[in-house]
Write a structure and sequence with these properties.
Blueprint (H helix, E strand, L loop, with lengths): L13 E9 L5 E9 L8 E7 L10 H9 L4 E5 L17 H16 L4 E11 L2 H10 L4 E7 L4 H7 L7 H19 L20 H10 L25 H4 L15 E6 L5 H10 L4 E6 L6 H4 L6 H11 L2
Parallel strand pairs: 3-4, 3-5, 5-6, 6-7, 7-8
Antiparallel strand pairs: 1-2, 2-4
Helix pairs in contact: 2-3
Length: 321
């Protein structure tokens, strides 16, 4: 793939194991656990929980990050959020930011019980939408000692206001009304309806942002269909559940995470840059906004020549030492 895109990277320097644990809702969360081959099992090691982009699964973006950071000496755990991928949750593709956030705390629960993990040295990393979920989780879970985000989306603001506040109050209310009507239709036995997520084909009207997502999710670069899923429905959340995002305010009280360090990574060409900038302005110290030259939003999912793995490594090594 061009420009260093390597979403399906497989490292020969780490071991991989599928793990299953329960969140506080007693739902099974599934993850890929990676350990450096040189790691001493008898010692206590630092760990990082990694969350995938909204609508994606652990095989898209987060498993790449997990392997690259495991190569640097961390134990890493890339999870499927509830209702997505291999994790539990019916109906699939339901929006539930509270449960998503709890999945990260559940991952900390799991790691804290492993004899080779130092429970005082666990960090979290969220890509795209998971950036807002790890912030939501970290505000009420002090066990998360370091918080990093990459190409973060504030999923609440994105649904309420749109990018660059392009959604009017009237459009928002119409969207909410449509979702509520669809909820009732499904309660009565109607077919589930999904919001676009990533389009399945391009035409002359396709926006530049949708083309960016299409190039990852609908091509061999990053396309992945979990077992039992329909390829055409991947990335698409349930319309009837979008109110959960309208009511999601992850950056409120973000300053209470201080003095735990926060790192916000975004590309200088990323359409989502506004969310990292907003979070950085509101966060307490220590904090850092790291802008990657020449990088768009999706570039930081898998383009290994642009992703600042060295920056992430130094951040977590300093924070989890």
């Amino acid at each position: 793939m061009s420009d260093g895109a390597d979403n399906f990277y497989k490292s020969d320097k780490v071991t991989r194991q599928k793990v299953i644990f329960k969140n506080q809702y007693q739902m099974n969360v599934v993850g890929n656990l990676f350990m450096p081959k040189r790691m001493k099992q008898a010692s206590k090691n630092p760990a990082i929980v990694i969350g995938h982009p909204m609508g994606a699964v652990k095989e898209q973006g987060s498993t790449l990050y997990a392997q690259k950071l495991a190569e640097q000496g961390f134990v890493t755990l890339a999870i499927d959020l509830s209702f997505w991928g291999e994790s539990e949750g019916k109906p699939g593709h339901l929006i539930s930011p509270e449960i998503y956030s709890d999945d990260f705390s559940a991952a900390v629960d799991y790691l804290s019980t492993q004899p080779y993990i130092d429970a005082e040295k666990i960090g979290v990393l969220g890509i795209c939408g998971s950036g807002s979920f790890v912030i939501s989780a970290a505000k009420i879970d002090p066990r998360m000692k370091a918080i990093a985000t990459v190409s973060m989306y504030d999923m609440g603001a994105a649904f309420r206001n749109g990018l660059q506040h392009s959604v009017t109050p009237e459009q928002r209310q119409a969207f909410i009304k449509t979702a509520a009507e669809q909820r009732l239709a499904e309660f009565k036995g109607g077919e589930t309806v999904y919001i676009p997520g990533t389009v399945n084909k391009l035409d002359d009207t396709t926006s530049a942002i949708q083309r960016e997502f299409f190039d990852f999710y609908r091509t061999s670069r990053g396309g992945y269909t979990p077992q039992g899923e329909k390829e055409a429905l991947t990335t698409k959340p349930m319309l009837s559940s979008i109110g959960k995002f309208m009511n999601f305010y992850p950056f409120n009280d973000i300053d209470t995470i201080s003095p735990r360090p926060m790192l916000f990574i975004t590309g200088d060409k990323a359409h989502s840059k506004e969310f990292s900038e907003d979070a950085y302005q509101r966060a307490g110290k220590p904090k850092e906004l790291y802008i990657v030259p020449g990088a768009g939003h999706v570039d930081l999912y898998d383009r290994t020549d642009l992703i600042p793995f060295a920056k992430l490594t130094s951040f977590f090594k300093n924070a989890l030492k």
